[in-house]
Design goal:
By secondary structure, this protein is α/β, with parallel strands linked by helices. The chain is built from 15 helices and 17 strands. Strands 1, 2, 3, 4, 5, 14, 15, 16 and 17 form a nine-stranded mixed sheet that branches. The protein has a four-stranded parallel sheet with strand order 6-7-8-9. A four-stranded parallel sheet has the order 10-11-12-13. Helix 2 runs parallel beside helix 3 and helix 2 packs across helix 14. The termini are far apart.
Length: 441
């Protein structure tokens, strides 16, 4: 399939940071053939009129729990420990395998409409999330969450062997769009013995690891009491960082921890909306960046943030850093865009995504810049970060395939997914809305 987008403005996010006006973007198969002028003799199968549109590399969500769309709005305005123990784990006790598919599918609809083509998901029954990602046309890095407990105590009764089977079956599926990593929950939930087993299997299978790290002061304090070192140092000693790793959160870390993360080339997933909403504190993002750590942006789960809109995450990240550092120039908008595109894609192993230049993966989005909140168009990059809305996105492409075209979602039955997901969510938590609907007949 050959696609030609004509007369478009393009934020290339390449090394030069080019902003190109009235250019053509030529796509051949899964690859960008040209950005600027179509190659001689290029014969497109379709032509898209790009006038009034702005092209940008597509977004990648570096850490999320997509099926938790089913718990959106269920646990509000309570501390993190109560949020987890009294609400989330109670609701998830009623979770079924099929629920996971529909929750993930609802998230996929939302993410595609918000310009996101890739997710690093960490949840249960991950073969259902894999099925969803394959159907949606998105890219995904999939981690089956494990606590290191006997199978009968794990969600869904999944043993480590079952999760390894999943990884073998799905790694590289979808013509390379799907990748698997191992997903121990965290060093505070998993024993050292279990984490060592995970590392051994990751090295044997050539897989990475995705887990939660240093989310609170209590976790750090308990780690020092139990292991004599911080969670980061503990994981480093166990070899967790000797394979490609996404470390989600890293809220409470020391300068020594940051040095370890940098030396081990750990990818940190930053999800600022969750930290603010649950009053968890904020990771030292600027220190991570200054240390050369690759930081990707993520939404986390919609039970805590409450959506899958990475554009909102960008905005919150920038606003918080400017205020916290007392410097309006902190975290400039061009850097924020790179965190949500290149850096997140790199953390997930999709290094060829994240820029509009020939030879790169054809992962891109088109914005309608004729909306009132885009005008005047002084700085297109700043407008995307601080003013644009998901509704402005008209087209989304992943590996050269349109997932959204002229505002129409092409790969998923959105209406069916919305109905099915909401019904399953009400069943899980026995929502008053469900009872009201039953009363009304």
């Amino acid at each position: 399939m050959r696609t030609l987008i004509q007369n478009v403005a393009a934020l290339a996010l390449d090394r030069e940071g080019q902003l190109l006006y009235d250019v053509d973007i030529a796509v051949e198969g899964k690859t960008l053939a040209a950005v600027g002028q179509a190659p001689p003799g290029f014969a497109p199968d379709e032509i898209i009129d790009g006038r009034g549109r702005v092209a940008l590399p597509a977004f990648f969500n570096a850490h999320c729990h997509a099926p938790m769309t089913l718990e959106r709005g269920w646990a509000e305005d309570i501390p993190f420990d109560r949020w987890l123990n009294e609400k989330i784990w109670v609701a998830e006790s009623a979770l079924t395998e099929e629920d996971v598919y529909w929750g993930a599918a609802l998230a996929a609809c939302e993410m595609i409409r918000a310009g996101c083509v890739g997710l690093a998901d960490h949840y249960f029954w991950m073969d259902q999330v894999a099925r969803c990602a394959q159907n949606s046309g998105m890219k995904a890095v999939l981690a089956w969450c494990q606590f290191g407990l006997p199978p009968e105590q794990e969600v869904g009764g999944a043993s480590l062997e079952r999760t390894l089977e999943f990884a073998r079956d799905w790694h590289g599926a979808g013509d390379g769009r799907l990748r698997c990593v191992l997903g121990p929950h965290s060093p505070y939930m998993c024993s050292p013995q279990f984490l060592r087993r995970v590392v051994e299997h990751a090295q044997e299978l050539g897989l990475g690891i995705h887990l939660h790290v240093s989310e609170s002061r209590d976790q750090v304090s308990n780690s020092h009491k139990q292991h004599g070192k911080s969670p980061v140092a503990h994981l480093a000693e166990l070899g967790v960082f000797d394979v490609p790793c996404i470390a989600a959160h890293c809220v409470e870390v020391s300068d020594d921890d940051i040095a370890i993360l940098a030396a081990k080339r750990v990818n940190v997933a930053h999800t600022p909306k969750t930290y603010l909403k649950l009053a968890m504190g904020m990771p030292p993002l600027q220190k991570f960046l200054d240390a050369g750590i690759n930081v990707g942006l993520g939404t986390d789960g919609p039970a805590s943030n409450n959506d899958m809109n990475l554009m909102d995450v960008m905005r919150v990240a920038g606003l918080y850093q400017k205020n916290a550092q007392g410097k309006p120039e902190a975290l400039p908008h061009g850097q924020i865009l790179r965190l949500a595109t290149q850096a997140s894609a790199r953390a997930m192993g999709f290094e060829n995504s994240g820029a509009l230049e020939a030879g790169r993966s054809a992962d891109l989005i088109l914005f309608d810049s004729d909306q009132a909140h885009w005008l005047p168009r002084h700085d297109l990059a700043a407008t995307i970060v601080y003013a644009a809305q998901p509704a402005d996105i008209t087209h989304v492409m992943c590996d050269g395939r349109w997932l959204l075209r002229d505002g129409e979602l092409l790969t998923l039955d959105e209406e069916k997914i919305k109905r099915e997901a909401e019904a399953r969510a009400f069943r899980m938590v026995k929502s008053p809305m469900q009872q009201m609907r039953a009363y009304r007949g």
